[in-house]
Structures
1.
Amino acid sequence: MINLKKSLRLKFLEKNKGDLVSGPFGSNISAKYFVDEGIPVIRGNNLKSKSKYFIDDGFVFITESKAKELIKCKAVKDDIIFTAVGTIGQVGIIPKSTNFEYYIISNKQIRLRVDKDKANPYFIFYQLRSKSLRKYLEGQNRGSSVPLLNLGEIRNVPIKLPNLLTQKKVVAILSAYDDLINNNYQRIKLLEEIAEEIYKEWFVRFRFPEYKNAIFCDDKGSETPPQTIGSLPYGWRKIRFRKFIKLNRGFDLPNEKIIHGKYPVVASTSIKAFHNEYKVKAPCIVTGRSGSLGSVQFVNQNSWPLNTSLYVKDFMGNSVYFVYYFLKLLNLERYNSGAGVPTLNQNHLHGIQLNLPDKSLQQNFDEIIAPIFMEIDLLNKKNKLLQDTRDLILPRLISGKLSVEDLELETLHI
């Protein structure tokens, strides 16, 4: 843990040629100013990554003239950005290689620019990302229903500030872990893209193995040319969703009843926590039921899907991988039946018609996709180990309990 009594405060960095500013006030950066191209606006979704320092896409944009009005909220490389309204604890740093010349922070963000003669920006970033400082920030929350921090509270955030050489050594160690983690995530992304492309090639474009020799038929079983609209390869069927799989609502589990364990608690868009019990055996395929719709998750562990989600209770003999990609590409957010809160009513899905390939082709698909998912699982486990190790040594490196005095900076970079 960081020793608060012996720490400086962020206002020290601000007074020493640094800069700490909050995002533009209220409607100055509302949706009415958004355009298709222009100056990107940094929001919370750009700070969510576990592996990267900053997610350099997924922006909304404002015009250059509007950005000039908000120039005090400008952010450039090496600026630290963190959330002050909503999800407190999100933090990112704009890397040296960025996709844009500059950015404007949203009205929920705060930007910190440090004097590099006093502090390494990445050293401060790692402190703000540490569990101890995130917990400290959460404890300063002045919001009622919406978590809120003001600039005064941010200025009093405790920080450690050893000499610059020590800071650089600590950053070199921690960034090495992040580089490994990010490389693994890039490999995971590539594997996921390969698997999805195979699904599309086989089951959307009908270019499955031996497709050139396949016989295509209409819904009456009469042979047709392959390009005939509505015709399917022999052995495929047109069925309704209700005969394809069965979805069930997830299970209640209040936060105060979560007991830390090894089983993922799966919310509508992500794994929320880990519990000591599970409700569904692996594999668990989950999609949002209430609040957030459209995201589909494949969790290859015994899991506890939450009540804000729907999970596949019965695959009805179909390939779990085929089911996963079918749901993923279905654009489930289209079936929103809620007024204020987006809601997915599974009854609205029952009438959907789909093309179901025969079981032998699904089995062939499994044989190709299963090893890809095994490799993804292995990479995720490696990343979990790397993240746990990084998070374990981070506070010890920052506090100085784990000394880097005898380490050579050149060796660390290698």
Note: The two ends are 29 Å apart (CA to CA).
2.
Amino acid sequence: MKMYTRSGDEGKTSVIGGRVDKDDIRVEAYGTIDELNGFVGQAAGFMDGERFAEMRDKLIWIQHELFDCGSDLAYVGKKDRPYKVTADMIDRLEQWIDLYEEENPPITRFILPGGTTVSSALHVCRSVSRRAERRVVTLAKTSEINPEVIRYLNRLSDFFFAAARTANSRENVKDVEYERSAEVFRTES
């Protein structure tokens, strides 16, 4: 099998149900999810040893789910199968966020993205997931999509934030607060 088809040389690409311009918002949306998937793989690659084994496993799981997101968005026209992204996937992300938040020290202000290599990579994933969410919201304004994809991406960015903080915490690196930030997070009492 050849890796090149030449079918996109004129600025069009195939989606399920037809062909569209390569800069179509649908392609932009699932293309940004694909970009995110690459950054998730990079973050997982930075995780070595047992300290991050379960987090690395979660990232690989997320990579599969990001393919599900892209698949759900790749349809034009009538859809002939159920969507892949479901509310259960979002519930699982919320459970993982809660687990990581139990490890993290409380914060009341915005923090600067950074710290360890793993934490920094996860913050990149967080910001790219926010961009992917914006692209999917734009697509939803003109096309029928699976609304769970938007919810999933929204929760995924929260997951990356919690995981980035956990990565720093596990390496005994303090998050750096944004100095001019007001108190924006409430601590539970």
Note: The domain at 12-170 is CATH 1.20.1200.10 (Hypothetical Protein Ta1238; Chain: A;).
3.
Amino acid sequence: MGGWRLEVGRMALYITFPVALFHYFNQPELFEEWVIKTKREMYPPENTPEKIEVVNAIKRLKEKQELDRIRALEKNVSD
């Protein structure tokens, strides 16, 4: 039929074609914008006033706890 050269050519095509397509379609530049847009739609940034208020409340609680610890240490040292 075609001989060994035809078989080698066909095998090269069978291996090269999927590898070339994989390389071409997996370039980040081709789908980076789409991925970022989709991610922002699914998980919008949380800069709501409620979140800021919660973060500030947690910060105030931590500061109060730290002051209480310092007072407790000062009391133990003075005793």
Note: Residues 46-79 form one domain.
